[in-house]
């Protein structure tokens, strides 16, 4: 399967401009043969816009998802996107994957809310996303800070996940996450991890880019720079040629210490 990853500037509340830009990228990804495009965290309505999170959040069956499903079905390229989801009185920092046919394949609510703003805006999720099938792969999702906790990726690995999609909004100053932790999670989990970040400023927060797709050997399959938009497209079939000696045997060989 070809996977597309889009690094872009924050939407910053510009919903229609965000949809226009996203549609263009999905069309470009589809033209290149990709079956899924991964977009950043809280692309709708914006990450550093706590004034908009509750005000604009929508349910899973709302207008945003309806429009995204139509785009996916029309182009034949699925979409994984971060957004603000309303469920009754609660608002969640959510990620949803839509298949190339427009069907919702998976939905996830961020468990590890980062910092005072997220904790004030959102209710935390309480369960991981069960792996779903896409083009023969077992796929699941985490959101940003979640990938920094080895236990979450390990649980997805035990569930048989091949590909972990991570919409993110990682600020400048935390470059160790895409450079070191994401490749480490990929190797530990014997999975591919795709980490799509924002780049540029939204209010007083500047995001650090460096989006990356890391393979099960911990090596980069593709990466973006620290600034500006990027569209990465990777054929994940390349991971099949990684020698078994370079892939983690942790799931097979791990022996817990005696208490």
TrEMBL record:
InterPro entries linked: Aliph_Amidase/BUP, C-N_Hydrolase, C-N_Hydrolase_sf, RamA-like
What PANTHER family does this protein map onto?
BETA-UREIDOPROPIONASE, NITRILASE C965.09-RELATED
State what protein this is by name.
Carbon-nitrogen hydrolase family protein
The CN hydrolase domain covers: 1-238
Keywords for this protein: Hydrolase
Query: Is Transit peptide one of the keywords?
Result: no
Q: Which Pfam families match?
A: CN_hydrolase (PF00795)
Q: Which residues form a coiled coil?
A: none
Q: Name one GO molecular function term.
A: hydrolase activity
